[in-house]
Please model this.
Amino acid sequence: MTSAPRPGQHSEVTLRVNGKPHTLRVDHRRVLLDLLREELGLTGSKKGCDHGQCGACTVLVDGRRLNSCLLLAVALDGSEITTVEGLGGDGEEPHPLQRAFLDRDAFQCGYCTPGQLCSAVGMLAEAAAGHPSHVTDPGAPSGRPVPLDRTEIRERMSGNLCRCGAYPRIVEAIEDVIP
Amino acid sequence: MTGTTGAALGAPAERREGRQKVTGAARYAAEYAPPGRVHAWPVPAAVARGRVTGVDTSAALALPGVLAVLTPSDAAGLAAPEDGTLAVLRTPDVPHRGWCVALAVAETPETARAAARAVRVDYAAKPHDAGPAEGHPDAYEPEDVVGQPGRVEYGDPEAAYAAAEVRLDVTYRVPPLHNHPMEPHATTAHWDGDRLTVYTSTQGGTTVRSVLAGMFRLPEERVTVVAEHVGGGFGSKGTPRPDVVLAALAARHTGRPVTLAYPRRYLPTVAGHRAPTVQRLRLGAHPDGRLTALLHEVTTQTSRVNEFVEHAAVVSRVMYATPSLLSTHRVVPLDVPTPSWMRAPGEAPGMYALESAVDELADALGTDPVELRVLNEPRTEPAGGKPFSSRHVVECLREGARRFGWAGRDPRPGIRREGPLLLGTGVAAATYPVQVAPSTATAEARPDGTFVVRINAADIGTGARTVLAQIAADALGVPLDRVRTEVGHSDLPPAPLAGGSSGTASWGWAVHEACARLAAHPEEGPTVRADTTGKADADSPYARHAFGAHFAEVAVDTVTGEIRVRRLLGVYAAGRILNARTARSQFTGAMIMGLGMALTEHSTLDPAFGDFPEADLAAYHVPVQADVPDIEADWIDEHDSHLNPMGSKGIGEIGIVGTAAAIGNAVHHATGIRFRELPLTPDRILAAPPYQG
Model:
């Protein structure tokens, strides 16, 4: 109980968010999600549970997908963050996965969508890098890209809840962008 | 499709707000930040019943950045709300655990959270009664459930049941269930003098405005309610919730714009839930399968704040021909959080029980469950005798059976093995009433040849903007891309809520009328206003319901107790389908919620504490990707001229109705064991005698 950070404690951190550097004095209690939403106005990352249970806040930190509600901002000095707002890069065109979500109607209310998108981008990179999942054949050679069938996609995307039940369309959208 | 006229309805038009949603640009209630905006955090009651005797705010107020702590009586000056769940901070009384007893307001969410934790509340706790409802002496029969009698009885059902040659007497149980939309309930409120603006997550902004105006004693025109994007609701945002009252109160108290985003764990006690039901079904039948008696008795509970009855027995008044019927409810008021609407309230648990019992009867008779349903198809609505405006449940069953490969199914249970797995298939019918309410809307012809349709509809993920544009385009006789829709703002023409699968019918009727008049009489323009009062709410001589059929295939692991759904098919007869793309998404989405109801979603109303232990998304398991197999939803062409100008029935809820029964029936087919309490979790499967140890 007494080990909680005391209010008023702040430190300076520098993050690169969607390619732009930001130097901020952050409250030690502040998580990355609140930093994005409250300080940078990047409200695309959503707060669904604030406890790492729903995945709506998923962003890419140095290329890895993480729940931003569980990351203390003060510990992220020097990190490179990509949010849903940055997925498409600088161009006008959305990321191919964003286009696929539109084509497949892979969302309804849209609240889990930014997390689904960031999670899927991170997941595709993990599979390409040969990271196995719970359903990957244990006999498969390590370090090789893991082919993503529907069972793999479903397993790997199970940290992102969607209460509207867009799951089948999300799988189709991800399949659309698998090279 | 956008280049032709008269072709918009039914087309799979893409969601108009889709680009905003996939780029993160769509803004939800907590994401509005007027200058100086601060954050609020509620303090939930820690007793199940009692009275707040003191609130020590000194430690909270001493934290840097804390603006205020609101305590019971800070809302005493507001007018009493009709809905008791909104009477927060008016008195020190605590009607249930989780009730808001204080509200901390601070510069940042972290400080607001710390301040809420630092508030010390003293209570005079009183003995509480949190159930269970079953066998409770205070149970009473409600006069009215959702505008229908609580009890319907004809044809001496007890005698008919006693005399029946084939009898089935079974009891089914559904636990409390939580809506848990992905966006927690949230409001950002700010005052400009005596004008109040709220950005809030709601299924019905028109009601939010009138409730706030009433409570804060303001003329409605001084209250603005914005709900441009809503992160799901599933009934829990169908009425204003405490967040909107508390945020407005805190903003007035502090003189700053305030955001109150409810923490996920607090939602089950303040956002409504599906009340648990215990349902006794007695079916009497001739040996050929024809029903002679149907008795459906529901016991459920409500809070002492509001009477809400989960009207699960209503489905038995609609589904099957029977010469005698008892359909009744008993409800017990308890010291518990207030239940409310959750997707297909009444129908979802009611059809779980009824369609499971019908499957049991088919099993007892040795009749195919599809054929037993066809045999008992009524010619008119069983309770009331009205003719159906359209009823194609048999066609849904037949088409579903064909697509699913039902023919040739071996009815014997427990014989299909795949290693440790037992396989089975099941079927259940679905029904949901057609509901429609009066609405207003305007259509404006612009000098550039485009049109703007305005209506305070709510897009909670249904695609309301899109389907209303389609309705407008066809009524105007113009291509879809020449119509713009504006929804989700109380400056727009008032409209009823997105709920009861009634939104598109209600809003669409008014949009259609405004556009049709503008097209026929351009001289009335440039803006034509329609109001469907007197039409949309006129009594119909017809019984109007959507119907459907669900088919499921499951694999039951006899070692781990895990049930996996392998296939799920829904076929619906829901009038004209207005947007094939968004309709399919709603059907399959609701089926997935039904899968959760069947297999994973489980809450408990703990009688010792009067609260739900499964309060968050780690303990309350909504289905995840890995739970969800290939799901197919389709519909049959249904033409019904007794509905509305579009010929549509509602589609938002029917997908959850009967899905749990189809899965449960498949589990019986797989295992030969009839599990009668949801959800069908591994512990329950492994507790069955053949799988113990």
In short: The longest strand of chain A covers residues 10-17. Residues 113-128 of chain A form the longest helix (16 residues). The radius of gyration of chain A is 17 Å. Chain A touches chain B through 62 residues (CB under 8 Å).
